[in-house]
Structure formats: structure tokens, C-alpha cells
Amino acid sequence: MSTACPACGSGDARSFYQCADVPVHSCLLVDDERTALDFPRGDLDLMFCTACGFVYNRVFDPAHNAYSSDYEETQGFSARFQDFIADLAGQWVDRYDLVGKTVVEIGCGKGEFLTEMVRAGAAHGIGVDPGVHPERIADDVVGRTTWIPGFFPRDYPELTADAVICRHTLEHIAPVADWMRTVRAAIGDRTDTVVLFELPDVRRVLEEGAFWDVYYEHCSYFSTGSLARLFRRTGFEVLNQWTAYDDQYLIVEARPSTTPAPGTPEAVEGDLDAVGRAADRFAAAHAAMMDRWRERLRHVADGGGRSVIWGSGSKGVAFLAALGADSALVDAAVDINPFKHGRYMAGSGHRIVAPKELQELRPDLVIAMNSAYLDEIGRDLATMDVATTLEAV
Ligand SMILES: [Zn+2]
């Protein structure tokens, strides 16, 4: 296994966090408890590159990847999420003059975002993802979209479009620089194509000790600085960078460049030392955060109460897997996505239940796996007349 940084090629990376036997997938649907408990596992050895600030899992093995139509990652059943993506799609269509244009999305998931780009005015959307379900696409955009259940570049090699979008995908790819160069090559000489990426911000994860945001599927982690450096290094000019969704997500807007290392770094990219310090403190922050949640769950159980988590996606899988045997202190995982009900959480084996089951379970503590959904969950609980304590990780 190479020790060179996959983003910049430097050999100056240091290991700052290790964890063995974590489930290799977070969002694959699992039909029974036994399969969930026996789910394949892999190890984490997170590295911080002192040259470019990139954070990556040194022992990630892509052979574990099993992305398929059984991959159920969507947050699209949330009204808050729908509002967010509709707003972002509208901004991008306006800012980059994409009315009547063609847009490609690499890693389009269930297609919600591309759908919003078309609704905002794009003439044609092409979505590529092994997990896309064309039969679930909204009727109003069916005639203006093309769905390719596969991978870029293998199943869709050429990016002929006015915009190339890639949201929450780059963090699942290990050879990030090679992959970005493949994107750049696939755009070719169409240098007016705009390139729009969104992915989690590692700085927040490290600083908060957010152990539920570190998991096997995410082999690559970026901050504002390391993302901009990667883009420049692989042939893109960075136009704009910002954080969104309660500062959880990094957004970068770029264009292909013909100049090596184009553009001057913005002040916000000068985060190398801060991210390095946060990486060095992560193991301690992680342990403290684990202790805090273990104590919280034990306190509820000691009082004869029940706890559930709300959100059965990657954060939920990581949260329960990290708790180990103490995950038994959590009674169930709630999800609003009906495709997940009756399935099981990879690793911990928790059953995924519909919100209405809380009327029977009567939990004393509901832990939201993403603070962005606190208001929405609070309203759902009130509507169902479930009186409980609601907290977010
Ligand atoms: Zn590096």
C-alpha cells in the first residue's frame, strides 16, 4: 500500500486516528439481523498530509466497494433537505446561466438534485450512479433527463455538458488526484464548462470529535484549503468556495483551466495548520464525545427508559458501530425513508423503523443523527404526540 498522499503525492503524512473492524458500507440495504451483524468490516488509519492538508484512510481497500441499486443514501424525504437542494440548484442555474443548458451529475444518487437543476431551468440532465432508480424519478422531469446506472468514467466516459456536478461522491474515492484528472480529461477543451462539487467539511468533523462522521465509505476528507489545492493541482481554476447546511458541507465552484496551478489562493484556504492541529486533537475529542454519549444512553437505560436514534444512514451506522457493545443501549433506528423500513443497520444489526412505531416504543431519548433535522424531527414527534427528549449529535 502506497504511503504517498493520494491528493498531492507527498510522503509527509502522519497517522492520527486508528479504528479496527468498522462496517465497510453504511447505506446498503440489509434484509436480516444476522447479515447485518456479519457485515464485512475494514480498518481505518486516518492520515493527515502535512504538505496539502488532505485527510485519508491509508488502509482503505476499494475491493470492499459494493455500490449497487441496493444503496439507499437519499435524504430526499426530508423537507429541509429538499429546500436546501432546490435553493442550491436555483443558485447554480442563475449564477452560471444554465437555463436551457445540459448538466451532467456524477454520483447522482436517486436523482433528486439533478431533478431540481432541470426544474430550475436546465434543458437536459444526465445522471450517472450505480444506485440510481429511473423508475423513482419525478414525472415532470422524466422527458428531460437521462439516467445511467453505472460509474464515471467506466460507463459514461465523456463529460460533454455545460455543467459537471458532483455532490457527496469525491469523499468515496481513494485516488482523488487521478480521478480529478480523469474528470478534467473528460471535459477536454470545453473550458467554459462549470464544475460544481459538494462534500463534507473535515475541519468541523475533526474539531467536534464527530465520530459519527468518520466511516469506511469515506476514504477521503477535505477542508476548504485541501480541496482548492487539489482542484488547482488537477487542472481547475477555483471560482468560489463556501460552506452550507449549517457549515457541514463544502461547496466549490470551478472551471477547467489550461494553465498549470491557476489562480491565487484565497485567505480561507490558509487552514493547513488549523486542520493539522484538529487532526492531532481528534483522537482525544473522539474519546470524549464517545464517553459523553455512552453516559447519556446509560443514564436513560438506568432509569428504565428507552433510547432511539433518528437517521439510519451513514452517521447512524457509524454512531452505533463506534459504541460497540453499548449500542445495545439503543432500541432502534428511525428513518423517514420508507425504502429502509424493516431493514437492518450494517454492523450493529439494529432494526430500522418508521417514525410511527415510536408511538409504541415511547422512547425517552431520541438522538438526531444530524442537527440540521432537529426542527423537522421535533415537528414529526409533536404531530405523532410522542413526548420525549430530543437531542442532536
Ligand atoms: Zn497531500
Description:
- With 393 residues, the chain is α/β, with parallel strands linked by helices.
- The chain has a domain at 298-392: NAD(P)-binding Rossmann-like Domain (Rossmann fold), CATH 3.40.50.720.
- The chain is built from ten helices and 16 strands.
- A seven-stranded mixed sheet has the order 6-5-4-7-8-11-10, with helices on both faces. A five-stranded parallel sheet has the order 14-13-12-15-16. Strands 1-2-3-9 form a four-stranded antiparallel sheet, with helices on one face.
- Strand 10 (236-244) and strand 11 form a beta hairpin.
- The longest helix has 31 residues, at 272-302.
- It is globular and about 65 Å long.
- The two termini are 34 Å apart.
- The model has no long low-confidence stretch (mean pLDDT 93).
- Residues 5, 7-8, 10, 49, 51-52, 54 line the site of zinc ion.
- It comes from Jiangella anatolica.
- Keywords: Methyltransferase, Transferase.
Write a concise keyword list for the protein shown above.
393 residues, five-stranded parallel β-sheet, 10 helices, binds zinc ion, alpha/beta, 29% helix, 22% strand, globular, Rossmann fold, seven-stranded mixed β-sheet
Helix count? 10
Instruction: Evaluate the radius of gyration.
Output: 21 Å
Strand order of the largest sheet: 6-5-4-7-8-11-10
The fourth-level CATH homologous superfamily of the domain at 298-392 is NAD(P)-binding Rossmann-like Domain
Query: CATH topology of the domain at 298-392, anyone?
Result: Rossmann fold
String of helices and strands: EHEEHEHEEEHEHEHEEHEHEEHEHE
How far from one another are the termini? 34 Å
Average of the residue pLDDT scores: 93
Largest sheet: 7 strands, mixed
Bound molecules: zinc ion
Give the CA-based shape. globular
Helix-strand category: alpha/beta
Number of strands: 16
| Percent range for β-strand residues | 15-25%
Unreliable spans are none
CATH class of the domain at 298-392: Alpha Beta
In percent, how helical is the residue content? 25-40%
Which architecture of the domain at 298-392 does the CATH hierarchy give at level 2? 3-Layer(aba) Sandwich
